[in-house]
Amino acid sequence: MKVTEKAPAKINLSLDVLNKREDGFHEVKMVMTTIDLSDRIECEELPGDEIRIFSTASFVPEDQRNFAYQAADIIKSRYGIKRGVMISITKEIPVAAGLAGGSSDGAATIRALNRLWKLNMSQKEMLAVASMVGSDVAFCVKGGTALATGRGECVQPIPSPPPCWVVLAKPPVSVSTAEIYQGLCLERAPHPDVDAMIQAIKKQDFNKICRLLGNTLESVTLDRVPEISQIKSHMKRMGADGVLMSGSGPTVFGLTQYESRMQRLYNSLKGFCPHVYAVRLCGR
Ligand code: ATP
């Protein structure tokens, strides 16, 4: 038997880092939303007891470092499953881009194995497994739009922003989330107003959402990847209503409600940047 799940990427509309905890993790407060750019996870039963990973993209580990592997491993030991599985990952989300591709693959694996092995997991159980895999995996289990706190694993659903286009551009470099956090100086970095963002979303005030876009990590990644400033200025010049770097970067996104502006942005970035996408917000 074979089960397939979509693993959508996310963007952060607001990302604040509050402090560094004694366990080494940072306490964050962020608004995340799902976008219509997805990997595809296919889980197929294998004879024996082994977890095997296949990915269509280079730079994605095909062993226990893969979040999909980790999710399967935790589920097998938690539920006493003695069966093998082949997990095939068709990557569309760029890797190490600030779009939670790996986390979403982990979350989609939890949903897929729940179906494949008929585990009847509650959402609470799925979230418990997700937080053992990684900070952003819990959000990816539910998707939609949410406020995430703690190290990112405490997820509270909120309404979704009004429909709009998201144009994404990733400069040809990857960044390590851990290194960006290490370079962060909390006193000097800007801190966005996450509560005001939630209010703007509840009021469906698109212009205010665009004005309030903010990310504490942006200044750190900007120092290492100068293309980010160039892409941001370019997107603003080409008519994006709001522009921000997602997660720890380096992907930059621009928002607009007009299809014509989306087309202009997309066309002007193609050729300038190797990875450009125009998608819809799909937070439920
Ligand atoms: P986040 O936004 O959550 O910080 P990201 O988008 O910056 O994540 P990912 O694409 O998730 O980054 O990749 C980060 C690292 O995770 C990669 O360098 C890779 O080694 C590892 N990884 C583990 N599993 C996966 C996976 N299924 N797909 C991609 N990368 C994976």
From TrEMBL:
It is an enzyme of class 2 (transferase). Residues 197-274 form the GHMP kinase C-terminal domain. Keywords: ATP-binding, Isoprene biosynthesis, Kinase, Nucleotide-binding, Transferase. The keyword Metal-binding does not apply. Residues 66-144 form the GHMP kinase N-terminal domain. The keyword Aminoacyl-tRNA synthetase does not apply. SUPFAM superfamilies: GHMP Kinase, C-terminal domain, Ribosomal protein S5 domain 2-like. It comes from the Bacteria. Pathway: Isoprenoid biosynthesis; isopentenyl diphosphate biosynthesis via DXP pathway; isopentenyl diphosphate from 1-deoxy-D-xylulose 5-phosphate: step 3/6. One of its GO terms (biological process) is terpenoid biosynthetic process. Its EC number is 2.7.1.148. One of its GO terms (molecular function) is 4-(cytidine 5'-diphospho)-2-C-methyl-D-erythritol kinase activity. It catalyses: 4-CDP-2-C-methyl-D-erythritol + ATP = 4-CDP-2-C-methyl-D-erythritol 2-phosphate + ADP + H(+). ATP binds at P94, V95, A96, A97, G98, L99, A100, G101, G102, S103, S104. Pfam families: GHMP_kinases_C (PF08544), GHMP_kinases_N (PF00288). The active site is at K10, D136. Belongs to the GHMP kinase family. IspE subfamily. NCBIfam families: ispE. Catalyzes the phosphorylation of the position 2 hydroxy group of 4-diphosphocytidyl-2C-methyl-D-erythritol. This is 4-diphosphocytidyl-2-C-methyl-D-erythritol kinase. It comes from Scopulibacillus darangshiensis. The lineage of its organism: Bacteria, Bacillati, Bacillota, Bacilli, Bacillales. The gene is ispE.
